[in-house]
Every structure is written in C-alpha cells, then in structure tokens.
Amino acid sequence: MEHPLEAEFGLTAYELLEALANRFRARVTLEGAVSEVQMEKKVQALVGTVVGRYEVHDQDSYADFSIWLPSRRKPLLAECKNVRDAHEAYRAGGEIVAYKVETQKTRAAKGDPSSRYYAVGQFDVLGVCLGKKTGDWTDFLFAKTSDLARHRSHADKLAVMQRVPLPGAEAMSPRCYTQVMLLNWEF
Fold it and tell me: Is 153 contained in some domain?
C-alpha cells in the first residue's frame, strides 16, 4: 500500500528515507520527530494511571505535550529534547562522565537575545531521549524543569546546556533525572 507522501512527492518510501538519511538538517528533524513519537508512547502508557489525558503540540514557542494529572486542573507542559551528538559530552580525564542536552530555542526574537533561552516556567518536564548515544530511541531520562541548571546571566532562564547522567549510573548526577516520568514528583 502506497503512503500518501509517496504519491505526493513521486518517490518510493525507500527513496524518501534515503533523502532524510543523507541530508544533515533533514536527519536532525527526523531525529527530533522520532524522539517526540517515542516520548508520546511513554506518556500514553501512563494514561489511566498517573496521567488522565494528554495532547501533542507541534507549534513554535509551545511545549511538545500538555499532560493532565488527575490531581491538577492545569496541565503540565513537557518538552522533548535529544542528547547532543556522539562527540559532545562532559568529560573528566578523557572519560565521558555525563551527556549534554541543549535547552535553548533555534532563534531569538529581534531585539531580545535572551528570548532564545527557555524561561524556567515555560515547561514543567524535560524528556531527554538518549537514542543518539545508546542507539535505543526508547531510552529516556526525565527531569522537572525547576531542578535544571539556570543561565548564568538570566536567573529566570535555563542554562543552554544541561548535564544528563549516563544510563545506569548508580548515583545519577545530577540527581534530578529519573527514568520514569512523573515518578513521585510533587508539582
């Protein structure tokens, strides 16, 4: 059965995937989409337990997910990010000690360079996909935004780079990350 994109672009599914695989910007976009779909599966798995319902958003300047908990009237906003590429990580003595995730927007608003940085209250939950490092695109760590590092010059904004602990680290550092979103969190 032909996918609508095959008909629209006059390419086979294989040719479309090759186009994505062989173009850097398209690949980055695909990785972002894959991590968001994988995070949605994790949120969806929580529906009926700690999550009442959720919505997915695909719009600029808005979080990727709204998540309603049975105990809250307002939804939690969740943002999904990928760890940085394989060569980027925090190191000590040449050894990788933590991954990096970038928490800033692609562009700043004209006249306000700090608008590129996320405000601490812009979203409540950060989901970090570890797929680029582990090869498993279902592998995530989650943190409350209030626990993340702040920008040095703008206390109400998040730092551009956040430390992400290595998978399986016995004492996760920073300790704000967990493998299960919303696990025993207070909001």
Answer: yes
Q: Residue 87: which region, alpha, beta or left (left: phi > 0; alpha: psi -120 to 50)?
A: alpha
Q: Which two tokens stand for residue 40?
A: 């949605």
Asked, for residue 4, whether it belongs to a domain, the answer is no
Nearest to 131 by CA among 163, 86, 181: 86
Q: Containing domain of residue 125, as a range?
A: 9-178
What is the per-residue pLDDT across 58-107, written as a single tens digit (0 to 9) for each?
988 789 999 999 888 999 999 999 999 878 899 999 898 999 999 988 76
User: What is the count of structural domains for the chain?
Assistant: 1
Token pair, residue 110, equals 């004209």
What pTM was computed for the model? Answer: 0.89
Mean pLDDT of 120-133: 95
Q: 150-155 contacts: CB < 8 A, separation 24 or more?
A: 150/120, 151/114, 151/117, 153/114, 154/114, 154/117
Q: Quick one: which H or E segment has residue 8?
A: helix 4-9
pLDDT at residue number 184: 67
Residue 184 lies in a domain: no
Contact yes or no for 83/100 (Cβ under 8 A): yes
Residue 99 lies in a domain: yes
pLDDT tens digits, one per residue of 26-62: 999 999 999 999 999 999 999 999 999 999 999 887 8
- 10 Å Cβ neighbour count for 97? 14
In this structure, are strands 53-56 and 65-68 parallel, antiparallel, or unpaired? antiparallel
